[in-house]
Write a structure and sequence with these properties.
Blueprint (H helix, E strand, L loop, with lengths): L2 H22 L7 H11 L2 H14 L3 H20 L1 H9 L11 H14 L2 H25 L7 H22 L4 H30 L24
Amino acid sequence: MTIRGRIPAVCVFAGGVALAVILLLPAAVRWPIGNGAAFVVSTYAEALAIAGLGVALSRLPRRPAVAGVLIFVAGVLVGWAVKDRILSALVQRPGSFEYTGFIGPLACILSGFALAVPERHRSVAAPAVAVPAGIAIGFVAALNDPSLGESQFFTGAAMAAFWLLLAPLALLRPVGAAYVAIGGRILASWLIAIGLMLGAAKTFRHQPPAPAAFGVSGPHNPAVLRAPVD
């Protein structure tokens, strides 16, 4: 590999080292930009979805891959910009805010789908998935921004998301297509399974407890009186 060909890998490595240093710093010491980067990595589901999308883009020709990256960046900006509109719509419907917890699991499933589709459809599927993936991470970052809209937190979140996308894209393109294809299928099944499990866990977590049966005493129905025993 030539020196020019090693530049992407070196940049990815340097970005990973910087991100690791940020994560090791105490939260009180980080700048807002560092808190934004740490937040994206700690989202787990969204971070896995972005990395999975990067793997899917690494298996595409150059033009569709670049288009997918640009679409993802645009989606992040859109997700940040429409936060207030989405929140105002959610506030008008009581209980609907809880559904924002399904953004990460859904992003995992979509990234797994982009990896699982046949190769002839991947050039369309992967850039298409980049749209909701970018919007999801932009919206989630804006939703959890403690600085109330300052640009530093968003900048850190966007940079971390961009690194998560470019790291597999830069590192896997030189690898043989057969190896990436096999690993991509395995990763696709994992992403879909993780998304389904996280979604199911959030579904059961939000379900209200079943009411106690009428006339049955217990910890959930203490008002029912038992007949005295002679």
